[in-house]
Design brief:
By secondary structure, this protein is mainly α. Helices cover 58% and strands 4% of the residues. It folds into two domains: 80 residues, DNA polymerase, domain 1 (Orthogonal Bundle), CATH 1.10.150; 169 residues, Intergrase catalytic core (hpI Integrase, Chain A). The protein contains twelve helices and three strands; from the N terminus they run αααααααβββααααα. The longest helix has 22 residues. The N and C termini lie far apart (68 Å). 28% of the residues are buried. Keywords: Cell cycle, Cell division, Chromosome partition, Cytoplasm, DNA integration, DNA recombination, DNA-binding. InterPro entries: CB, DNA_brk_join_enz, Integrase-like_cat_sf, Integrase_catalytic, Integrase_recombinase_N, Integrase_SAM-like_N, Tyrosine_recombinase_XerCD.
């Protein structure tokens, strides 16, 4: 019988073609967190151990959406374990997923976005990262995989390479963004085929960028993540009445339902503007 670590590694490796990089990262973290909490072999886990973990996550203040995603990783793992005959029963079958509150995605107000841009203006690479995330709406994994040859400067387009679960597409960027990118490229000291590189010329790491955003959040007094800028991109376009189908295409959403939430953001924003005029 495999150890918990070996079983998790087999599960992730066997599903590598099906899972996106973000899913693999999330599942790896959640499964190891559950393993550490339960303190027992995965084959000995019972429903009560999973419920205790979920209760602990709730007590620690995690949002229902985050708990839902963590439980999804455990459920997926045990379905695989059952298929591989590592376990006789799936302990997650009778553990219901928590209901997710119908909340709107968090996005930056214009003043917050301006403050973020102002804070990073002295660092060409960081400022260019901010501009690209906001101007194109790409996922952080997509941004870090952009090669210089993927950029069509004359048309101000970037080819977003196909990845696990995501289709290829073209996104647009502004003249201002083009200037930020060119300034970054002119001032960097390492040759690299990537748009954003580390000192070795390899793609800038996801972990590094996430840490920089935590630094921005602490310094500016409001939370901002790379995904916040993706939401901000879509929300600001929705407020300007861009059709849902266009936003869907730019975001790379397969299902239009994933984009409809931004229509509600537009309605919320208009109500806020109305309330301001009525004061």
């Amino acid at each position: 019988m495999q150890t918990n670590e070996e079983a998790i590694a087999y599960f992730l490796a066997d599903n590598a073609e099906r899972f996106s990089q973000e899913t693999k990262r999330s599942y790896h973290l959640s499964l190891h967190q559950f393993s550490a909490f339960s303190g027992r072999s995965f084959s000995e886990v019972k429903p009560l151990h999973i419920r205790a973990w979920l209760a602990d996550l709730t007590e620690r203040g995690l949002k229902q959406r985050s708990i839902h995603l963590k439980l999804a990783s455990v459920k997926s793992f045990y379905r695989y374990a059952l298929e591989e005959a590592w376990v006789v029963k799936d302990p997650t079958v009778h553990v219901p997923s928590p209901q997710i509150e119908d909340s709107l995605p968090h996005y930056l107000e214009k003043r917050e976005l301006a403050a973020l841009m102002e804070w990073t203006k002295g660092h060409p690479r960081e400022r260019a990262v901010i501009e690209m995330l906001y101007t194109t709406g790409v996922r952080i994994s997509e941004l870090l995989n952009i090669h210089l040859r993927d950029i069509k400067w004359d048309a101000r387009q970037v080819w977003i390479r196909p990845s696990k679960g995501n289709k290829e597409r073209f996104v647009l960027f502004t003249t201002e963004c083009a200037e930020r990118l060119k300034h970054h490229l002119a001032t960097r000291h390492t040759a690299s085929p990537y748009l954003f590189e580390n000192p070795k010329g390899e793609a800038l790491s996801h972990v590094y960028v996430e840490q920089r955003f935590r630094d921005y959040s602490e310094a500016l007094g409001f939370k901002v993540t790379p995904h916040t800028l993706r939401h901000t991109f879509a929300a600001h376009l929705a407020v300007k009445d861009m059709p849902q189908s266009y936003i869907q295409e730019l975001l790379g959403h397969v299902n239009i339902n994933s984009t409809r939430v931004y229509t509600r953001l537009r309605e919320t924003e208009r109500k806020k503007q109305y309330d301001q005029y009525q004061r």
